[in-house]
Amino acid sequence: MNYPEKELVRKSRNGDIEAFESLIQSYEKRIFNIAYRMTGDREDAYDISQEVCIKIYKFIKKFRGDSSFGTWVYRITSNVCIDELRKRKANVIPFTITNPEGEYEIPVADRDKLPDEAYESKELSEAIRLCLLQLEPKYRVMIVLKDIYGYKYEEISKILNINMGTVKSRINRARKLLKDELEAGNLLGTNPSKK
Amino acid sequence: MKCSDAEKLLSAYIDGTLNDDDKAKFEEHIDNCSACRREYHIMNAMIVSCRKLGDIDLPENFRHDLHERLIKEKRLKKRSIYRFIGKYKALVAACLMLAVVLGTAAGIGLFGGSPKRSASTAQSQKASGSAKDEKMISNDAKLFSAPSSPALDRKSPENGTGTANSSDNFVNVNISKAEYDKYSKDIISFIESIEGQKISSTPLQYTIPKKFTSEFISKMKDSFKIYDVMVTPADSAPENDDARPKGESAEYKAIIQININE
C-alpha cells in the first residue's frame, strides 16, 4: 500500500487495519525507542509501545490534524510513558552500572585537557543511559526528545503541549540534573562524594 | 557576567539559540573562567554522547503481535456496539417503535392537518415546487380525491362532459338482464329527453345535469318498476343547482351507472 499519510489516516479512522499498519510503520521504531529510553528496559518498552499503537488506532478519530500526525503520535507516546512511570512509582532505580563481567571502568577525564573523545566512549553512553533513569520523568523526557532525538524547542512544545519558556527551562534543568548524576557516580572525573 | 548567569545560558549556548549580545558575553566569560569553561565542555560532551546513543531495533515479533492486537481491538469495538444494543435493547426497541409511530402519524397527516388540506397544500406547492415534489404531491392529491363510495367506480362517463368531481351525484341502477332487455331503450329515451340529444350507442354509463337526479330516480321506480337504485350524493356541493354561481351548473352532474346482474 502506497497511499499518502492523509489517506492512510482517513482509512485508519474507518478501522482499516492494513492502512493503519502502513501508517504506523513510519513511527513504530521511534515509539519503541522513546519508550526504551524512558524506561531503560526492552520488555517495558515493548509493552508500552504496543499500548501506544493500540491507543493511536483506537483514538485516531480524535486526531483533528491541528498538528502533524507525528507530533500527535509522540505526544501519546510521551504521555503513556510518563503515566506508566508514575503508576509504577519505581522510576528511580538504584544507581548501579554493571555489565555481565562486572562493573564498568568509567574513564576519568583529565581535568585539564577534557578532550571530547573522553566522553564519547561506549561506557559513557551506557552511563548516560542509566543516569537518565535517575531523573524525574518530566526531565527525562526532555533529554530523550532534545538530546537523544534532536527535536527543536518548538516541536517539543507541541509534542508535550507546554509553552516554549517551560521547554527551555526544563531542558536546562534536565541537563544540569543529568550532569550531576554523572558526576555523582564519578563518571566525569569529578568528586564522587557529592552524592 | 557572573558564573550563575553563565550557568543559566549554558544550555541555550550549546543549542545555538542565544542572541548575539548574550552569545558574546557568554563566550567572553568562559574564556576568562576555567570552572565555567569546564562546565561547558562537560555538558557539550554529555549531549554529544546522548546523540550517539542511537536506536535499538524493534523486537522481531513486534508487528505480528501488534497485528493480532489490532484484530482483537477491532472485534472488541464491534462487540461493544452489539453489547450496547443488547444492554439497552428495550430502549433501542422503544426508539424504533417511536420512529415508526411518528413516521406513520406524519404519513396520515396528523401533523399536517386533514388529508384534504394536505391535498390543497400539495396543489399550491405544485405550482412552485420541484419536479420531485410535484410527483409526490400529485400522488397524494390523487389519493385523497379517490371515490369514497365502493358502489361506484367514478370513472369518466362515456357520454360524459368531462371527468367526475366531488360535487357530482352518482346513481347506481341495478337491474337484471331481463329488465335491461325490457327497459334499456326506454331508459335511453328518457336520458335523451333530458339531455336534448340523441345517444347513438347503448353504453352503461350516462351523465345528466345534476338537478335531474330526483326526476331520473322517480322515473326508474314509478315507470319502470326498477327499485334498486342507489344514489351517492355529492361530497360538498349544494343540492340546489340554482344556488350555485351562474355558469357553473354545467360542471355538476349526475353520473348514471347501469349494473346488469347475471
Secondary structure layout:
The complex is a heterodimer of chains A (195) and B (262).
Chain A: H1 5-13, H2 17-25, H3 28-39, H4 42-59, H5 69-88, E1 98-99, E2 102-103, H6 122-132, H7 137-148, H8 153-160, H9 164-184
Antiparallel strand pairs in A: 1-2
Chain B: H1 3-15, H2 20-32, H3 34-51, H4 62-87, H5 89-107, H6 115-128, H7 131-144, E1 169-176, H8 177-195, E2 205-209, H9 213-222, E3 229-232, E4 253-261
Parallel strand pairs in B: 1-4
Antiparallel strand pairs in B: 1-3, 2-4
Describe this protein's structure.
With 195 residues, chain A is mainly α. Chain A is 62% helix and 2% strand. In chain A, strands 1-2 form a two-stranded antiparallel sheet. In chain A, a hairpin with a 2-residue loop joins strand 1 and strand 2. In chain A, helix 3 (28-39) packs across helix 4 and helix 8 (153-160) packs across helix 9 (164-184). The longest helix of chain A has 21 residues, at 164-184. The model of chain A is unreliable at 91-116 and 190-195 (pLDDT under 50). Among the domains of chain B are: 3-51, no CATH class; 112-144, no CATH class; 169-261. Helix content of chain B is 56%, strand content 10%. Chain B contains nine helices and four strands; from the N terminus they run H-H-H-H-H-H-H-E-H-E-H-E-E. Classes of the chains: A mainly alpha (195), B alpha+beta (262). Chains A and B meet through helix 2, helix 3, helix 4, helix 6 and helix 7 of A and helix 1, helix 3 and helix 4 of B.
